[in-house]
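F.,

This is the one I mentioned.
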């Protein structure tokens, strides 16, 4: 009887140790899943995203000069078709301008607004022949062409390729393009 009692006591002690060990493992697992290192970095807004991309430095300069940086860092959502530095350089050559300083403020503002659409427009929602109304607000539109790759036909009859799509920002999305878009008037 004493032997049976000792065996039962030993089994109970082993079960208590097992439960404590299991609770310890669960507590450690919970602690590791709650670590700050595992949490994704918060998304940057559109301006911060552009500032972090060396190929968009001229766009950032233009946005700051035009005073649109606070707007594009705001709540949104916005969709920005972002021309690369090479696109701006080609436009300056086309316009026979030495730098952005040669473009007057009103023209620069109008051109930049022509690259921004209200709302978050992902590439999957673009359709061939879709007419897009940017925030420019004066009736100027551009058209999406999906034949042979995603392109934009601007108001001046020029075509720009969309080279990168759906770059998520906290306040919208950015699509990178290889030509500066120009409104029709």
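My design for it:
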């Amino acid at each position: 009887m004493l032997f049976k009692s000792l065996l039962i006591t030993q089994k109970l002690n082993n079960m208590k140790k097992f439960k404590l060990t299991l609770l310890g493992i669960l507590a450690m697992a919970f602690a590791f899943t709650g670590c700050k290192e595992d949490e994704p970095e918060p998304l940057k807004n559109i301006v911060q995203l552009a500032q972090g991309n060396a190929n968009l430095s001229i766009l950032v300069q233009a946005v700051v000069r035009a005073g649109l940086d606070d707007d594009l860092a705001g709540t949104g959502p916005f969709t920005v078709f972002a021309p690369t530095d090479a696109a701006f350089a080609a436009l300056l050559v086309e316009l026979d301008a030495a730098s952005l300083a040669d473009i007057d403020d009103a023209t620069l503002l109008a051109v930049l607004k022509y690259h921004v659409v209200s709302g978050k427009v992902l590439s999957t929602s673009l359709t061939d022949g879709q007419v897009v109304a940017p925030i420019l607000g004066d009736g100027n539109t551009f058209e999406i062409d999906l034949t042979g790759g995603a392109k934009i036909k601007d108001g001046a009859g020029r075509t720009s390729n969309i080279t990168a799509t759906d770059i998520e920002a906290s306040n919208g999305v950015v699509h990178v393009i290889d030509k500066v878009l120009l409104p029709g008037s």
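The chain has two domains: 2-38, 46-177.

Talk soon.
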